Amino acid sequence: ECAGEPLFMLYCAIKQQMEKGPIDAITGEARYSLSEDKLIRQQIEYKTLILNCVNPDNENSPEIPVKVLNCDTITQVKEKILDAVYKNMPYSQRPRAVDMDLEWRQGRMARVVLQDEDITTKIENDWKRLNTLLHYQVSDRSVVALVPKQTSSYNIPSSASITRTSISRYDSSFRYTGSPDSLRSRAPMITPDLESGVKVWHLVKNHEHGDQKEGDRGSKMVSEIYLTRLLATKGTLQKFVDDLFETLFSTVHRGSTLPLAIKYMFDFLDEQADRHGIYDTDVRHTWKSNCLPLRFWVNVIKNPQFVFDIHKSSITDACLSVVAQTFMDSCSTSEHRLGKDSPSNKLLYAKDIPNYKSWVERYYADITRMPAISDQDMNAYLAEQARLHSTEFNMLSALNEIYSYVSKYSEEIVSALEQEEQARKQRLAYKVEQLISAMSLES
């Protein structure tokens, strides 16, 4: 209830910032990026256009203005329109771009269906270029509509009033190997059209296939030129990253103060360190980092789609990975020595990490200073959580997971229980042995 908002805002900010500039539909590279691997290196000329989209739910209500780029592919335009029209609807409930046709409406009569590939697609040598708005010469303030895809453009009942021309040579709008969804979610590699051996491209030809790497992308000189572009994007997103980190590393923002479980767990770790005579603060810090930020938060930062009903494109994924790496570096106790060969994501956040590290240390110290949680309070908290989520989890499955761990380490567990005073009073070692033998009989 507290970290959700800044995480969602960061996701939205990244998505919006990336879409302000060109994104290559094939390689997943973008003009605006935090990740050097996903940066378009060439200069791409482009213009921002506004398309007026007919409201799909009501043709007579006002048209919805949608910002697009003239270098966008038709699928990219469809996705931007869907984002604008259904912005308050969960991603899983929206129509999918692949099921919709984009119509360019010229006057009241003529409608042209635009597609990524059709008979007008330009092919030079063995490179086939995806169609963009510029290719079709769609102008600013054009009227467009998203309509459910026709199975074939040839068998539409021809109504006298409307001529709907489709310049499609075949029904499938995709000639990639792999479904459009897999194409969107992972950075797709170029797959030659199986029939003709033609390579598909959009903004930049992916020369890493066989040809000489363009200007050796690895050279450090190249990195320094692009670092300024990465830094500009980082600056735009800075506030959102700061807000998220500040919320995650703070005991104050929490709705129910800090969840009891975190305090309980951190105290347990400190207790274990005392018991085993470990007074190295770095070790204690690392244990805590491994338990909470690195095991839990990094996964959520990198995969906001686990929490929200959204779609994560490959460029958004690449940017979130850089944020997640920075988050991990903030929890580390080792000093990062930076040199000219350091990866760009380390250089990007080099000035911020000392600050973030101090937040982490303060956070752990604040938790240590909080009053201890009694077992009674902890049990009450767990009982309440169990009640709130009683329908969502399979208890037998969880017990089975614990059992498989217990049976694997049965000797160590039994001998530890025989040495513990409390455990001896409750004859826990004997009970565990009974349990294991009963389970093995059944199996």
UniProtKB/TrEMBL annotation:
Pfam families: Plexin_cytopl (PF08337), Plexin_RBD (PF20170). Transmembrane segments: none annotated. Residues 1-413 form the Plexin cytoplasmic RasGAP domain. This is Plexin-A2. Gene3D superfamilies: GTPase Activation - p120gap, domain 1, Phosphatidylinositol 3-kinase Catalytic Subunit, Chain A, domain 1. InterPro entries: Plexin, Plexin_cytoplasmic_RasGAP_dom, Plexin_RBD, Rho_GTPase_activation_prot. Residues 34-146 form the Plexin cytoplasmic RhoGTPase-binding domain. It comes from the Eukaryota. It comes from Xenoophorus captivus.
